Amino acid sequence: MQTSPISAGPTATRPPAAVRTATGLSAVAVGSGVLETLLVVVPLLATTGGMDGGLWANLGLRAIVYGVAALLVVGYRRRRKYSRAGLAVLLSGVGLASMVVPAVSALAAGADLVDALGSGGALAPAFAIVRVTHVAAVVVATVAMFLPGASRWYRGAPPVP
């Protein structure tokens, strides 16, 4: 049985709402990670006037992580089945844990919410807002990736070029 072009089935030409939501929110999560990096690095540069080897290494690692995440988001939208698993494991598993565990530990140690979520300094409140946005985007995108409409979109379907 063939489905109509606007449905969520394997022959659909337009992704269902769940896939569009997951794609958009995954992109928001990647963008939030980049913005978090800038909120930490820019004040550092302003106060120290330069970058040392450790900062360059950290930026290089983040560039690789966000680059891979962006490629997975594009792959997800193009029906690359490995991308859904990659996003679920790397962004929803490892990435989410790397954001939530330190914040929960800081809260348990008595830190206030902005300090637990923030990076310290004058931009801590902005960082905390971006971090909450980042975490929420990852959680909702992960749920959307595994909704029935998204699963039908991937079931037996060839990748979209």
What do these coordinates show?
With 161 residues, this protein is mainly α. It has one domain. The chain has six helices and no strands. It has helices at residues 17-48, 53-77, 81-108, 113-117, 124-145, 148-154. It is elongated and about 55 Å long. Residues 1-7 have low confidence and may be disordered.
Largest sheet: none
Shape summary: elongated
Q: Structural class of the secondary elements?
A: mainly alpha
Report the order of strands and helices. Answer: HHHHHH
Structure in a nutshell:
The chain is an all-alpha fold and 161 residues long. The chain has helices spanning 17-48, 53-77, 81-108, 113-117, 124-145, 148-154.
How are the secondary structure elements laid out?
Elements: H1 17-48, H2 53-77, H3 81-108, H4 113-117, H5 124-145, H6 148-154
Helix pairs in contact: 1-2, 1-5, 2-3, 3-5
Keywords:
161 residues; mainly alpha; elongated; disordered N terminus
